[in-house]
Amino acid sequence: MVQSNELYDSDGSENSDKELQKAFANKLLKPGLNIPIEKEKKRIFVNNVNGLQSKLKDIQTNFKWIERLDLVNKPAALAPELAMQMDEQETSNTNTFNEFKRETNFHRQAQAAVLEGLARLKAMGIPTKRPDDYFAEMAKTDEHMQKVRGALVQKQAETERREKVRKFRQQKKMMKELRKEGLVKKQNEKKEMLDEVKKFRKGVRKDLDFLESNKSKKVKPVGNKMDQLSKKSQLKRRYKDSKFGFGGKKRGLKTNTRESS
Question: Which residues lie below 8 Å from residue 191, measured CB to CB, with a gap of 6+?
Answer without folding.
Answer: none
